[in-house]
From TrEMBL:
InterPro entries: NAD(P)-bd_dom_sf. It comes from the Eukaryota. This is NAD-dependent epimerase/dehydratase domain-containing protein. Residues 414-436 are annotated as: Disordered.
Amino acid sequence: MASSEQKPNVLILGGLNTYSRALAALLVPVEGESLVAHMRIVDKFAVVPPTTYIGAEFPKVLKKPNVEYVQRNLTIPSAVAQAFDPPEGQTAYDYVFDFTGEARPSRTEPVIINMTCAVARLIGLEAAKRKIKAYVRLQLPFYDTGSKSPRNEKADVEPEGTVGTWWHETLRMLAAIEDLNLVILRIGFAYGPYTDYGIITSAINVASVYGFIKRPMKSLWKPGDNPTNTVHVEDIAGAMHACAKWMADLGRKEADALAGEQIIFHNSKSRVSDVEGMPPHDQKLIAPLFNLVDDANSTLLSIGQVTTSFFGTTFQFFNQLKSAYAKFKLGELVEDINEAHVGGWTRMLILAQPPITSTPLTGYMDEYALKRHVVAFDNAKIKKVIGYQLRHPEFTHAELKDMIDKWKADGSWPNVENVAPPPDLNAAPDADDTDA
């Protein structure tokens, strides 16, 4: 192992409520040798006391002597610049990991643009100015790839909705920054310990409710391929770190030659003059891009089967008529669908041994979680070019058990293994009227 003088200084920006905690725990583990000399984490949340869920492990990481947490509003240019100033006695940052962006699809377009495009561009410009050796941007799976086959990095995939359009546009804005040592990591749907964000966590929570009330969980969407590729948060962390080391050894020009892909325009041409820093629609923009999903080739069906069987129930589908109705009227169904989910989850918390009085987890599924998502990525490139090896290649019962055991240990998950559901839950409305 290299000496501490040879280890990089790293800056992690955003993502405390999504996936940056896993990277922090990889770089500065609670047990074992640190991979970095100094690590600063910057986000809008407080951590003492926490204003977002941070799990049981992350506070231990924050206590390490080479870790610094800074609460800062990264929409402010001066705050971004200050984030890049290392503490006294430390050298400049070598790697920057960018997890920023508005991850809630329900937010308005101006909020998404400001919290995603504008923030990332501020960070990218500062990183280029400071000559950061590696800037790794995490791209969430706000895409519809189509279901015919996994799409590689050269494929033109369609951003999903307003949030997808502007997350994708952010990549073009970053790719246009001269001398930015940019690597883009585009992921599938994430799961793993202490991960309370995302549709996989929602599926796990709701499956537990149907296991508790001993009813099948049903999907609104008819059977089919419906790829819903998954990835473990520890692989997100490992791949982010691997991308940074790869870029630092090459620089942008050589990295583009080895792994550059065109970031294709998917927006309205009229917005180019409206949004600061948005490149012209016909500008050809190239940046190193890697897909990251596991080897499970997860689909809606496989995720449903893995989660429901873990809780002792089954995964089924509604009839074609209800699927067709949901396709056009999903917003009208959301509250009815959640009546059984939320009621069952609340009773599980009350009846748990011991009872759970506070948890970041919920049985509520918003409209985005209930929508049909089609994300199928090919992961061959990151394995071949960077040599990354998956630590968690399959979405299995063992992975679910690890998640739930850790939630139980930190008091977030209801222990109802020896608790029978009350008669009123067993007599819940017919599943055809309530399930997701």
